[in-house]
Amino acid sequence: MPTGSRGSSLPAPPRAVRRRTLSPAVMTVFSLVGAALVVASNSAVTPLYRLYQQSMHLTPLMITLVYAVYTSACWPRC
Prior knowledge:
The chain is mostly helical. It is built from three helices and no strands. It is elongated, with a radius of gyration of 29 Å.
């Protein structure tokens, strides 16, 4: 088998692919927006609490306590 560049049966090396990257400022903004969405979705009162209240005959105080326990469980440990 020839070893020259013209007669070689080896495939040509792949072209270098330039990767597109985001600037650190843009990545920071995306991270902050993502974190804010996670926090907002975890702290929102779920519509299921109303169903729980009706089906289990819970008082508004009990619903408040359930929500308080839920949010304190989601709070990050320091």
